[in-house]
Recover the amino acids of this structure.
């Protein structure tokens, strides 16, 4: 990931409006492997993502040299675990 990636916290969910119909997404726990990566990115960027922030989503954009931009809409549960706004099938492990 590039260190000059930007993170945005403007309260808008632009990509959700364009790609998913209302009700097609939900807050899902982030798998451990992905959580460690995202926690590192959050820390590097000094993003404040307080516990029990489920009422507010934070947009994290990551650009890779060989992949398209990845967008994560994140919040935290009261216990500190990351949640991501996504369609339920998005976090399934490949078979």
């Amino acid at each position: 990931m590039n260190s000059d990636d930007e993170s945005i916290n403007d309260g808008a969910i632009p990509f959700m409006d364009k790609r998913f119909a209302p009700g097609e997404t939900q807050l899902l726990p982030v798998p451990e492997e992905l959580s460690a990566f995202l926690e590192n990115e959050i820390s590097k960027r000094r993003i404040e993502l307080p516990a029990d922030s489920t009422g507010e989503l934070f947009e994290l954009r990551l650009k890779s040299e060989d992949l398209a931009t990845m967008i994560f809409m994140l919040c935290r549960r009261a216990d500190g675990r990351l949640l991501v706004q996504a369609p339920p099938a998005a976090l399934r492990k490949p078979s």
In short: Residues 32-44 form the longest helix (13 residues). The chain is about 20% helix and 25% strand. The beta strands are 7-8, 26-29, 58-62, 70-76, 82-86. The chain has a mean pLDDT of 74.
